[in-house]
Amino acid sequence: MKIKILYEDSSILAIDKPSGILVHPDKRSKEKTIRDIFLKKYPKLEIVHRLDKDTSGVMLLAKNKKAHEFLKEQFQNRTVKKIYNTIVSGRFKNDRGIINKPIGRSPKDFRRWLSGRGARGELREAETSYKVLKRLKNFTFLEVRPKTGRTHQIRVHMKFINHPVVCDSLYNPQGVCPKDLKRLALHAASIEFKDMKGQIVKIESKLPLEFQKMLK
C-alpha cells in the first residue's frame, strides 16, 4: 500500500494515514501496521503517537530514538497542537464549546472508554474544544481540538454530550451511517510541532473525499 508522505526531514516523517490501517499491532489480528509498511525504508522508525485504526489524517513518525524522545516530550508537555475534523450525529445548538470531563474504563466493554457516570478505574483528565463548521439536516461538521491525548478521547467526549461520531461502530453502533460514508467520520486535519532545530512546523491533510461529498 502506498501512503502519502506529507513532510520529511532527517529525523521526522509525517504521513497521511488512510482509514482502516492499524498503528500498533493487535494481538487478535495479523494485519499490517503503519510501522510494518515503513520499516523497510526506515529501519529505526518509532511510533510517536497513535491514531485509531479507522481515523485518517496527519501522523508523526520518528526516524530514530533521539527524534522519538524529542517529539514524545512535546506530546507529554501538550505543546503539540492537533486539529481534527469530524461529522457527528445531531445538530449542535452552540457554535463553540469545551468538554472538560475525565475519562475512565467502560464497565460493560473492555474495548470502550467512558466519560461521566459509570466510568471505572483511574479517571484521567481530558479536555476537548470544538467549533461548528457546518450544520447539516441530521449531522454537524466540527473542528475539534483535543488538549489532552486520551485513547478514543474525541469519540468518548462526543458520545458524552450525545453527539456521537458518525459511523462509529464502537460508540455509536445504532446510529445512522450515511450510505456514502463507509468509515469512521474522524480525520486528523493538522498537527503543529517543533522540529529538531526548534522551528515550528505545521502539517495539514486534506479532508477525505467521502467527507467532502457529504458536506456538499
CATH class: Alpha Beta
CATH-level-2 architecture: 2-Layer Sandwich
Structural class: alpha+beta
Total domain units: 1
Helix proportion: 10-25%
Structure description:
- By secondary structure, the protein is an alpha+beta fold.
- The chain has a single domain (5-215), classed as Pseudouridine synthase (2-Layer Sandwich).
- It contains four helices and 13 strands.
- It has helices at residues 34-39, 65-76, 153-160, 209-215; strands at 5-8, 12-17, 46-47, 56-62, 81-89, 96-100, 103-105, 113-115, 120-124, 127-135, 139-146, 186-194, 200-204.
- The strands form two sheets. Strands 1, 2, 3, 4, 5, 6, 10, 11, 12 and 13 form a ten-stranded mixed β-sheet that branches. The chain has a three-stranded antiparallel β-sheet with strand order 8-7-9.
- The protein is globular, with a radius of gyration of 17 Å.
- The mean pLDDT is 94.
